[in-house]
C-alpha cells in the first residue's frame, strides 16, 4: 500500500533522535518509534519492511508518520500522554461513605449490599456514583481497625469531627 506521508527530518531532529536512542532509559515503545522515524526518513525501505524490522504493524508505522506530518515531533517521539480519570468522590465523600457503611440499618443489619449502600449514600446528600465506585472505596479502607476512625493521607479523622 503506498504511503500518503513523506518524512523529511531536519538535522536537529535527527541529532535529537540519536541522542534519545543513546540513552539507556528510554522505553521500548519510544525506541521503536524512533527507529521507525529514522528508517522512514532515509526513504530506502517500504512501510512493511520498516514494520518488520522495528516490530510494529504497518498501520502503526502509518499512524506515526501521520502524527509527525502534522508538525507534532515531540509527541510523536515521546508518545501521547495518557491521563488518568478524575476521581469521582473527594476524600470527604469517601470518609462519609465508609462511616455510613459501618452504621447498622433500621432492621439491625450491619452488612450492606453495594446497591443499598449506594442508595443511602445518595439520599444522604452524596454524589450519584455506581456500585463499583462504592466497592472500590470500601476496599480502599477495609483494613482500618477502628470503625470510628478512617485514616486518610497521614491524617486521622475522628467520627466526632
Describe this structure as you would to a colleague.
α2 (28-42) runs antiparallel to α3, α3 (47-54) packs across α4 and α7 (114-123) crosses α8 (131-140). The model is unreliable at 152-161 (pLDDT under 50). The chain starts with 10 loop residues before the first helix and ends with a strand. The chain has a two-stranded antiparallel sheet with strand order 1-2. A hairpin with a 2-residue loop joins β1 and β2 (155-158). It has 8 helices and 2 strands; from the N terminus they run ααααααααββ. It has 161 residues and is mainly alpha-helical. It folds into 2 domains: 11-78; 91-158, no CATH class.
For the structure shown, list the relevant keywords.
161 residues; mainly alpha; 2 domains; two-stranded antiparallel ribbon; 8 helices; 2 strands; 5% strand; disordered C terminus
Q: What is the element layout, followed by pairings?
A:
Layout: H1 11-22, H2 28-42, H3 47-54, H4 58-69, H5 73-78, H6 91-101, H7 114-123, H8 131-140, E1 149-152, E2 155-158
Strand arrangement within the widest β-sheet reads: 1-2
Major pleated sheet: 2 strands, antiparallel
How many domain regions?
Answer: 2
Number of helices: 8
Give the N-terminus to C-terminus distance in angstroms: 67 Å
What is the N-to-C order of secondary-structure elements (H for helix, E for strand)?
HHHHHHHHEE
Query: Residue-averaged pLDDT, rounded?
Result: 79
Strand percentage, roughly? under 5%
Query: How many runs of DSSP E, i.e. beta strands?
Result: 2
Low-confidence stretches at least 5 residues in length (pLDDT < 50)? 152-161
The helix/strand class is: mainly alpha
Shape: rod-shaped
In which range does the helix fraction lie?
A: 40-55%
- Radius of gyration over all CA atoms, rounded: 27 Å
Amino acid at each position: 500500500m503506498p504511503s500518503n506521508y513523506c518524512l523529511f527530518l531536519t538535522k536537529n531532529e535527527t541529532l535529537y533522535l540519536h541522542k534519545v536512542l543513546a540513552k539507556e532509559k528510554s522505553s521500548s515503545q519510544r525506541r521503536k518509534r524512533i527507529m521507525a522515524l529514522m528508517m522512514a526518513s532515509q526513504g530506502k525501505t517500504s512501510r512493511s519492511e520498516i514494520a518488520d524490522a522495528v516490530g510494529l504493524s504497518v498501520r502503526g508505522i502509518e499512524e506515526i508518520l501521520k502524527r509527525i506530518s502534522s508538525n507534532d515531533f515531540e509527541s510523536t517521539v515521546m508518545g501521547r500522554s495518557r491521563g488518568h480519570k478524575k476521581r469521582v468522590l473527594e476524600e470527604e465523600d469517601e470518609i462519609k461513605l465508609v462511616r455510613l457503611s459501618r452504621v447498622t440499618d433500621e432492621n439491625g443489619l450491619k452488612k450492606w449490599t453495594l446497591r443499598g449502600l449506594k442508595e443511602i449514600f445518595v439520599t444522604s446528600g452524596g454524589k450519584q456514583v455506581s456500585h463499583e465506585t462504592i466497592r472500590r472505596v470500601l476496599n480502599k479502607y477495609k483494613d482500618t481497625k477502628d470503625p470510628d476512625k478512617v485514616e486518610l493521607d497521614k491524617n486521622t479523622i475522628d467520627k466526632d469531627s
